[in-house]
UniProtKB/TrEMBL annotation:
Domain Aminotransferase class V: 4-365
UniProt-listed PANTHER family: CYSTEINE DESULFURASE (PTHR11601:SF34), CYSTEINE DESULFURYLASE FAMILY MEMBER (PTHR11601)
Protein name listed in UniProt: cysteine desulfurase
Organism, scientific name: Anaerobutyricum hallii
Keywords for this protein: Iron, Iron-sulfur, Metal-binding, Pyridoxal phosphate, Transferase
Enzyme class: transferase
Reported cofactor(s): pyridoxal 5'-phosphate
Family the entry assigns: Belongs to the class-V pyridoxal-phosphate-dependent aminotransferase family. NifS/IscS subfamily.
Catalytic activity from the UniProt record: (sulfur carrier)-H + L-cysteine = (sulfur carrier)-SH + L-alanine
């Protein structure tokens, strides 16, 4: 079996059409968009066309889209600049315990600057309870940041309802949509989203480019000082090839979304069924129904997830135990911990995320390899033998 790539939540392969769209801007159309000559003018025109294109996918306007280096920069800009802008109004921020580290670490930074942050609990499926969110709101609350869909367990939050709560209380609402953009339909107006982060490499575009949506009425301060790029908000020469590639990737993502969603979801459900039926003592993490199309996050008791990953790598299967940003961290996932998953079970977690390029043949091969690997890891586990005799069940 050739390499089986099932870590699309970490990054996605660049589509051939995207590579083709980028190619001219490396060696032929290499002009700086800020120049006055024709090559520069054409590049600047391409950038504005992509800005308009991305805006349409969100029901936004072009002047509300700002290009960045990716999701982490967009998250940092949104959180830190919003706090700076509104610090005279209040210093309280609300987020959740299962956010990406770009959000959690930005909030931790702001706490050192005198801001207070409430980290909302989630239920066993990874969903935020709206009543608890409302109770957390204070007179000095200035920002709510809740991710659109979780990068580990795939749970999709009730973004429209959260946006409505934020609007009712005159609070800025940011959502990290890095995992959702390109997979789900997003309408920033209907969902009352003020700020939204996205990254091209999560929807088959290049790495190193993304965007931040900033609602027109919000005077968010500039993030990088220097020249006048991005309407004086984000200085630095634009990543011209990257923006061209992101535009093409967005175009493909939204024109093929319905078809891809159906195909990928069918493969995901097939994968989950085969794992649950074929391997005892496993637990699917995240919402059973309200989850990203390609996400399968599953925990196997009596094993270590990192050991499982090594055995799968020997079989040429690429997967992960948690977020790619947590690689090397041996502690249990902060997402699973917040969901109340016991530590021993959480440590045996495998995240498999399916992309458009995956096939049923690859899924069958992967399931067989996982089954063999789990059995091998459990062979010398005394606690497994005892538990199997006492609870001969198939699902934890």
């Amino acid at each position: 079996m050739k390499q089986v790539y099932l870590d699309n939540a970490a990054t996605t392969p660049v589509r051939l059409e995207v590579e083709v769209a980028m190619r001219p801007y490396f060696c032929e159309k290499y002009g700086n968009p800020s120049g006055v000559y024709q090559m520069s003018s054409e590049n600047r025109g391409m950038i504005e066309n992509v800005r308009e294109q991305i805006a349409k996918t969100l029901n936004a306007s072009a002047e509300e889209i700002y290009f960045t280096s990716g999701g982490t920069e967009s998250d940092n800009w949104a959180i830190k600049a919003a706090a700076q802008m509104l610090k005279e109004k209040g210093r309280h921020i609300i987020t959740s315990k299962i956010e990406h580290h770009a959000i959690l670490n930005s909030c931790a930074y702001l706490e050192k600057q005198g801001f207070e942050v409430t980290y909302l609990d989630v239920d066993e499926w990874g969903s935020i309870r709206l009543d608890i969110l409302e109770k957390a709101i204070r007179k000095d609350t200035i920002l709510i940041s809740v991710m659109y869909a979780n990068n580990e367990v795939g749970t999709i939050q009730k973004i429209a309802q959260i946006g409505k709560i934020a609007e009712k209380n005159d609070i800025l609402f940011h959502t990290d949509a890095v995992q959702a953009y390109g997979q789900l339909l997003i309408d920033v107006k209907k969902e009352n989203i003020d700020l939204l982060s996205a990254s091209a490499h999560k929807f088959n575009g290049p790495k190193g480019v993304g965007f931040l949506y900033i609602r027109k009425k919000i005077p968010l301060p500039e993030y990088i000082h220097g020249g006048k790029q991005e309407r004086n908000h984000r200085a630095g020469t634009e990543n011209v090839p990257g923006i061209a590639g992101m535009g093409k990737a967005a175009e493909i993502a939204f024109t093929t979304r319905e078809y891809r969603e159906k195909e990928i979801q069918q493969l995901r459900d097939y994968l989950i069924r085969r794992l649950q039926r074929g391997i005892p003592y496993c637990r699917l993490n995240g919402s059973l129904t309200n989850r990203l199309p390609g996400n399968c996050n599953i925990s196997f008791q009596f094993i270590e997830g990192n050991e499982l990953l090594l055995l799968l790598d020997e079989k040429n299967i690429c997967a992960s135990a948690a977020s790619a940003c947590s690689t090397g961290d041996t502690s249990p996932s902060h997402v699973l911990t917040a969901m109340g998953i016991p530590e021993k079970l959480a440590r045996g977690t495998l995240r498999l995320t399916i992309g458009y390029q995956n096939t049923q043949e690859e899924i069958d091969y992967t399931v067989q390899c996982i089954k063999e690997a789990v059995e091998k890891l459990r062979e010398n586990a005394e606690d497994y033998r005892r538990y199997k005799e006492t609870f001969p069940c198939n699902i934890m």
